[in-house]
């Protein structure tokens, strides 16, 4: 009798194991096979979704809470905020043509910059920022034609960006359904420095040294004095983490482009994933660890090159 029970238990165990493996394989096929890729970007996996797909098409986690009325992972505190996709509110962007925007970070939360998403349809057109406001545009999905001044045109696709100094005349027209993340702030002028128009792409930026750290770092803007902020692209392989719990005077605005992990802000610990936005006030303790099977990549705003007293 005992041996019969043991055989029955073993058969049941093998059945559950095989069913689990088959379900996992099916789930991998549904989400582009990400679960079977090594620590590489999802776009490099055979048949995988486009780069930053999950940043623009995020899924709620845990899945069983997706349809729960009022559910959100968003948290807002005096020195930090986690803004998650299920709580985004889109509305027409003022003076833009056929474009919906969602402001993720603004001065009303305590920031000295704005960070917002712009969803453009085919043929949508941008408006200029307010007087003396500089702008950085990063393409998450689709493509745009950027016209600057009277005749210069640049084509920007996914992972491309443009820094537009304050008061420079420009317009952006979408070539297809496009999502942009945009940073704007009132330019902090100093002496006779004047920043230049910058157009580039992440893959063209060199990897920089990060003494004592394991992550990979790229900076999208020059580090010279004319620029009062920079945008960092930071890559973590699964299991990598910041060695230092940072506390500094700089503000941050962060968008998780790929992957998932744990972010510590102050005394709180937050599970985060692609599509999540974080605001960090000056001097809030901050730390990150990457989890999951693929790399983490996030885009990070940081104010630089200015005296905090000014």
Automatic annotation (TrEMBL):
- Renumbered to this chain, the signal peptide range is 1-27
Q: SUPFAM superfamilies this protein is in?
A: RmlC-like cupins (SSF51182)
* The Cupin type-2 domain, residue ranges: 233-299
Answer whether the UniProt record assigns the keyword Signal to this protein.
yes
Which keywords fit this entry according to its UniProt record?
A: Signal
Name of the protein described by the UniProt record: Cupin type-2 domain-containing protein
What organism is this sequence from? Answer: Urochloa decumbens
């Amino acid at each position: 009798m005992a041996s019969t029970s043991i055989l029955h238990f073993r058969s049941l165990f093998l059945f559950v194991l095989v069913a689990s493996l088959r379900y996992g394989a099916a789930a991998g096929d549904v989400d582009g096979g990400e679960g079977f890729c090594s620590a590489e970007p999802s776009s490099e996996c055979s048949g995988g979704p486009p780069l930053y797909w999950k940043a623009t098409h995020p899924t709620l986690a845990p899945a069983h809470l997706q349809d729960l009325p009022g559910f959100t992972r968003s948290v807002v505190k005096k020195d930090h905020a986690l803004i998650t996709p299920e709580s985004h509110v889109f509305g027409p962007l003022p003076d833009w043509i056929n474009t919906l925007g969602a402001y993720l970070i603004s001065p009303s939360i305590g920031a000295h910059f704005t960070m917002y998403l712009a969803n453009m349809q085919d043929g949508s057109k941008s408006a200029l920022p307010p007087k003396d406001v500089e702008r950085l545009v990063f393409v998450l999905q689709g493509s745009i034609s950027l016209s600057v001044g009277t005749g210069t045109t640049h084509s920007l696709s996914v992972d491309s960006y443009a820094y537009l100094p304050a008061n420079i005349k420009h317009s952006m027209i979408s070539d297809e359904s496009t999502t942009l993340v945009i940073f704007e702030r009132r330019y902090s002028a100093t002496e006779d420095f004047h920043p230049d128009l910058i157009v580039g792409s992440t893959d063209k930026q060199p990897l920089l040294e990060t003494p004592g750290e394991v992550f990979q770092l790229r900076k999208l803007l020059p580090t010279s004095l004319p620029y009062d902020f920079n945008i960092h692209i930071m890559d973590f392989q699964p299991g990598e983490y910041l060695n230092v719990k940072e506390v500094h005077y700089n503000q941050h605005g962060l968008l998780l482009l790929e992957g998932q992990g744990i972010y510590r802000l102050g005394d709180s610990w937050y599970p985060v994933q692609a599509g999540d936005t974080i605001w960090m006030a000056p001097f809030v303790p901050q730390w990150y660890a990457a989890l999951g099977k693929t790399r983490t990549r996030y885009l990070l705003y940081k104010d630089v090159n200015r005296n905090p007293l000014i």
